[in-house]
Amino acid sequence: MNRMIRVLASAPATALVAVLSLAPAAAYAAPPPDAQTFEKTFSFVPEKSQKIGITAGDVVIESVKILAWPDADDFRKAEKDPNDTKTMWVVFTYTNKGDRNYKCIYAVTVLDPEGGKPLAVDDAERTLDKGKVDDTNRFGLKMKTNLYKTAKTFKVNLTVWKK
């Protein structure tokens, strides 16, 4: 039994409640039942805007692109350290012509070309602000630097709903 469990087990119930209340909350609440979901797969290439073109109510998720691709120095560093990582920026462009904000969960998976375990996976929840045209949302996705050379595709799952 580890030390923290022993301490909590011997602590008064009020102390246990205090400890549990300090635990981090979930990153975001589950989307409502009427949320719309979409999935598309794209080529894993740097700096190229790729059309998504999905519509959910007043919102259009227009495109996605990968920024902050490793440079030659990053690849040299990764040759010496196979565990070296580089964070890419996944950038989504959207338009919301409505008078209400929307929410979107962007989930990105860089796929293994041989069908194995994904090379990188992450997600983020962002607001799609009302009245915005060609605005962007982005988030960082960390992956081993050497895998940028082998990855061929990435999958995007979107969940969109009115706020």
Write a structural description:
The chain is of the alpha+beta class. The protein has a single domain (29-162), classed as Immunoglobulin-like (Sandwich), CATH 2.60.40. The chain is built from three helices and eight strands. The protein has helices at 3-10, 13-21, 72-80, and strands at 36-43, 50-56, 59-67, 85-96, 102-111, 120-128, 135-144, 153-162. Mean pLDDT is 87; it is low at 1-26.
Summarize the structure.
Helices cover 16% and strands 46% of the residues. The protein is α+β, with helices and mostly antiparallel strands and 163 residues long. It starts with a helix and ends with a strand.
What topology does this entry show?
Blueprint: H1 3-10, H2 13-21, E1 36-43, E2 50-56, E3 59-67, H3 72-80, E4 85-96, E5 102-111, E6 120-128, E7 135-144, E8 153-162
Cα distance, first to last residue?
45 Å
**Oligomer description:** single chain
Succession of helices and strands = HHEEEHEEEEE
Q: Any idea what the CATH architecture is?
A: Sandwich
The percentage of residues in β strands lies in over 45%
Annotated CATH topology: Immunoglobulin-like
Q: What is the domain total for the residues?
A: 1
Which bin fits the share of residues in helices?
A: 10-25%
Number of helices: 3
Low-confidence parts: 1-26
Which structural category do the helix and sheet elements fall into?
A: alpha+beta
